[in-house]
């Protein structure tokens, strides 16, 4: 709606609504800005769609009203309370009906978090260049770990989640728990000591580094360079289960496997006993079926071999008899007697068998042999 003034003589006069509308329209043209201050008068209600609080300048007490959508405020998970020092990204606006000036927030960060994020980004690039996060360095988890190490806080929900899930899935699992600090300035060195102590435990095959959710500052120890290097250098595979799905401390990148939650980590390190038994039953059934098939094939081969052995002597005799008959037939066909029976004769002189006419002189006595006997003859 266009903002117009009413002309009174030489004066242009705006109504309150028109004035507020004009100022509000002008404010929408301003860019987003970051504003620093302390949170006061924080008001949040489950039935409200908006969260209200006041930013106060600690130096001179200047105040600025702030609104933010409740869904966006809850998603930040900052656990803000009065007195917290923050940076608020927002756009100035005017509530026209009452003429209230305020900052409509788009994001909120605790004081100093920007510096932390920049430092973490530099550390991430540095370790990535050194190969600490390299995929080829990561090791697979053991199928059936002999012992499972758990580094977690004392009496923490994460410890209960991991141990309860492991015990429920695989009752035979053995868990070695190392309780230590997981928050504050002492957390990183304490977790490093716990990792090294677990690596010295006999038959320990995997370590779970677990902590439940928390604010950005609470999870900072899990991005400590010393801890990241200790995780990467650990002698057994490490599963990082820190925070919730959206939390990504740098130890997730240094670990061999990242789990979205401590419960998910427990499901990764041990198999489900029920599923394992079912798989063993399937394998046992398959093995029995394969054994039966092998035995049947072997039995068939033995029976076939036995039949061949039983028939072998008769077959051998038959083959030899056939060969002998064949040889005898050939001998009979080639014998002189068979030749004589076909009408031929053998002629002999007193000294030799006559093969050519030159061997016989005229008037010589000859002996002629035919199929059924011999008789004499004289050469003409």
Fill in the keyword field for this structure:
single chain, 5-stranded parallel sheet, 40% helix, 25% strand
Please describe what this structure looks like:
- The strands form 4 sheets. A 5-stranded mixed barrel has the order 3-4-5-7-6. Strands 9-8-10-11-12 form a 5-stranded parallel sheet, with helices on both faces. A 3-stranded antiparallel sheet has the order 13-14-15, with no helix packed on it.
- The relative contact order is 0.07.
- The chain has 10 helices and 15 strands.
- The protein starts with 5 loop residues before the first strand and ends with a strand.
- With 380 residues, it is α/β, with parallel strands linked by helices.
- The model has no long low-confidence stretch (mean pLDDT 87).
- 40% of the residues lie in helices and 25% in strands.
- Helix 4 packs parallel to helix 8 (262-269) and helix 5 (187-199) packs parallel to helix 6 (225-233).
SSE pattern:
EEHEEEHEEHEHEHEHEHEHHHEEE
* Overall number of strands: 15
Averaged pLDDT: 87
The major beta sheet can be summarized as: 5 strands, mixed, barrel
What fraction of the residues are assigned to beta strands by DSSP? 15-25%
**What's the tally of helices?**
10
Cross-sheet strand order for the largest sheet: 3-4-5-7-6
Ends: how far apart? 160 Å
Low-confidence stretches: none
Q: How much helicity do the residues have?
A: 40-55%
Quick one: overall form?
elongated
Structural class: alpha/beta
Q: What is the C-alpha radius of gyration, as a whole number of Å?
A: 53 Å
């Amino acid at each position: 709606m266009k903002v117009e003034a009413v002309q009174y003589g030489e004066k242009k006069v705006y109504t309150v609504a028109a004035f507020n509308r004009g100022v509000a329209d002008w404010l929408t043209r301003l860019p987003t800005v970051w504003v620093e201050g302390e949170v006061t008068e924080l008001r949040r209600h489950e039935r409200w769609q908006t969260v209200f609080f006041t930013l106060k300048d600690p130096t001179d007490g200047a105040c600025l009203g702030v609104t933010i959508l409740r869904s966006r405020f809850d998603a930040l998970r900052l656990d803000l309370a009065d007195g917290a020092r923050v940076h608020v990204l927002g756009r100035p606006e005017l509530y026209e009906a009452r003429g209230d000036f305020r900052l409509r927030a788009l994001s909120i960060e605790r004081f100093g978090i920007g510096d932390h994020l920049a430092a973490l980004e530099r550390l991430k690039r540095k370790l990535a260049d050194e190969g600490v996060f390299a995929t080829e360095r990561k090791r697979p988890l053991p199928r059936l770990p002999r012992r499972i190490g758990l580094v977690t806080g004392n009496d923490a929900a994460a410890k209960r989640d991991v141990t309860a899930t492991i015990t429920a899935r695989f009752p035979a699992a053995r868990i070695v728990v190392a309780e230590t600090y997981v928050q504050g300035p002492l957390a990183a060195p304490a977790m490093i000591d716990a990792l090294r102590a677990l690596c010295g435990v006999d038959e320990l095959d995997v370590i779970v580094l677990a902590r439940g959710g928390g604010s950005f500052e609470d999870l900072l120890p899990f991005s400590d360079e010393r801890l990241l290097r200790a995780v990467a250098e650990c002698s057994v595979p490490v599963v990082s289960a820190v925070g919730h799905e959206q939390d990504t401390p740098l130890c997730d990148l240094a670990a061999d496997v990242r789990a979205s939650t401590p419960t998910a980590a427990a499901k990764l390190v041990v198999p489900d006993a029920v599923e394992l038994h079912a798989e063993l039953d399937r394998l046992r059934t398959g093995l029995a079926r394969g054994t039966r098939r092998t035995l049947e094939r072997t039995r068939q081969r033995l029976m076939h071999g036995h039949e061949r052995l039983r028939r072998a002597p008769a077959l051998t005799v038959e083959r030899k008899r056939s060969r002998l008959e064949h040889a005898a037939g050939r001998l009979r066909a080639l014998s002189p007697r068979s030749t004589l029976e076909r009408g031929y004769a053998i002629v002999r002189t007193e000294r030799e068998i006559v093969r050519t006419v030159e061997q016989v002189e005229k008037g010589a006595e000859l002996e002629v042999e035919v199929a059924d006997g011999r008789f004499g003859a004289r050469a003409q």
